[in-house]
Amino acid sequence: MTDDERNRVERKMIRKVDFRLLTMTILMYILNYLDRNNIASAKLAGMQTDLNLHGNQYEPGCLYLLSCWYTRKELVKRTAVLYSGSIISGAFSGLFAAGITQNLDGARGLSAWRWLFIIEGCMTRRAICQISITVAIIACFIIPDLPRTTSWLNNQEKKLAVWRLEADIGEDDWVDSNHQSFIAGAKAAFL
Q1: I need a surface site. Which of 11, 56, 94, 166 has the fewest CB within 10 A?
Q2: How does it sit in the membrane (predicted)?
Q3: Does residue 8 register a pLDDT over 90?
């Protein structure tokens, strides 16, 4: 390939990956982060004392997946976009939680952190759960696996995706098709 051909194919491939991978990971990250903010707000409102929790009793793979597709230079921008989603959800969740924890502590004999989970749970739990399940099912079909095993890239784009990573970091993560399958990955994750 000439440099112009490679650049054209590379731009097209990156747009495909951005549309599928980045869009879905940001959406999933925002949904995941909404509940995490409730835990932090509840902790500040006294849940830690009431439930006698301490240390790591409160505690992903998005960055790894992104690093399988983007060069180091491209990864910086995509990581910033990903974390922007969490900041946006954190801003809204934090404001809402502050209103609840400051105004309802002791109301009807319940701690503010309990009100936080009751109110936000009633308002958003069902909707968030339905949205999260729908997004997770869609993500199974949209989020790409590794560059060599992604079905929606043509052979030229697959080779280019692998070549770009090799050129950027000097090596390819590929082992073989038996050790890089979905089943092998799931087994490794559970073990």
Answers
A1: 56
A2: Multi-pass membrane protein
A3: yes
DSSP 131-189: HHHHHHHHHHHHS---GGG-TTS-HHHHHHHHHHHHHHHS------TTTSSHHHHHHHH
| pLDDT tens digits for range 35-60 | 666 667 777 778 788 888 776 665 46
Written as six digits, the tokens of 71 are 């060069």
User: Cβ–Cβ contacts within 10 Å for residue 160, how many?
Assistant: 20
Contact by Cβ (8 Å): 144, 17:
yes
Domains of the chain, by residue range, sit at 3-190
Q: Phi, psi at residue 153, to the nearest 5°?
A: -100, 140
- Compute the distance between CA of residue 121 and CA of residue 114 in angstroms, rounded to an integer: 10
Mean pLDDT of the chain: 80
Whether the Cβ atoms of residue 172 and residue 166 lie closer than 8 Å to each other: yes
The per-residue DSSP string of 18-36 comes to IIIIIHHHHHHHHHHHHHH
Collapsed DSSP state (helix, strand, coil) of residue 176: coil
10 closest CA partner among 61, 85, 73: 73
Q: What is the DSSP letter of 70?
A: S
